[in-house]
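F.,

This is the one I mentioned.
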């Protein structure tokens, strides 16, 4: 792969278990080996707001869907300061999840149009140069999640993941700079498809 000409803000999205972490690891390695400096990051972040979100996701804290939407959006606005700095320092930013997730997950249980506007219209929230959506059927994603053997989070049931995937696909259709990648193949196959999308 060729080094990046100018730093880009690249986001990975997908339902739980779609393979974002594995594929981000591979892309980070490929970019770094090509000589592109990378800033790897994720949402929810590890800030105070992000920690609050983790506690809500595990079910330890009770938050309404609207409260979650506000918290994820706050976490994102705070995160943007780091993202902007990395881009200004010439680094390509690789981010695991962004506002597409808030629209798909929280939009499900609150007003999706409100969630969308709050994120897209916020001057402190940057539009990604590329969103790679790893598309996987919920049955397959649940198999992968259970193979990990970790504690499950509040969204990891088939009915919820099916609705969330539909929300993702509907919202992605209406947004710019999106590439939908079939994530059902082997890690190597999916990586090749991602390199194609990133290289375009
Ligand atoms: P993540 O750490 O990406 O989990 P995984 O690696 O299992 O995909 O995300 C944690 C959870 O947070 C995931 O279930 C999706 C949820 N989430 C939202 O509901 N809204 C958001 O805006 C974000 C960023 C994540």
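My design for it:
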């Amino acid at each position: 792969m060729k080094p990046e000409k100018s730093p880009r803000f690249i986001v990975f999205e997908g339902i739980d278990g779609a393979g974002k972490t594995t594929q981000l690891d591979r892309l980070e390695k490929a970019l770094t080996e090509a000589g592109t400096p990378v800033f790897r990051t994720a949402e929810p972040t590890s800030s105070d707001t992000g920690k609050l979100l983790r506690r809500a996701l595990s079910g330890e804290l009770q938050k309404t869907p609207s409260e979650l939407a506000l918290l994820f959006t706050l976490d994102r606005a705070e995160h943007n300061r780091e993202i902007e700095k990395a881009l200004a320092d010439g680094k390509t930013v690789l981010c695991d999840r962004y506002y597409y997730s808030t629209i798909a997950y929280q939009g499900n249980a609150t007003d999706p149009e409100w969630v969308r506007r709050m994120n897209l219209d916020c001057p402190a929230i940057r539009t990604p140069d590329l969103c790679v959506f790893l598309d996987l059927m919920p049955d397959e994603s649940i198999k992968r999640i259970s193979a990990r053997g970790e504690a499950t989070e509040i969204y990891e049931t088939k009915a919820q993941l099916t609705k969330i995937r539909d929300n993702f696909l509907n919202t992605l259709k209406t947004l710019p700079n999106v590439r939908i990648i079939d994530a059902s193949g082997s890690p190597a196959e999916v990586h090749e498809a991602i390199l194609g999308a990133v290289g375009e």
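The longest helix spans residues 65-88.

Talk soon.
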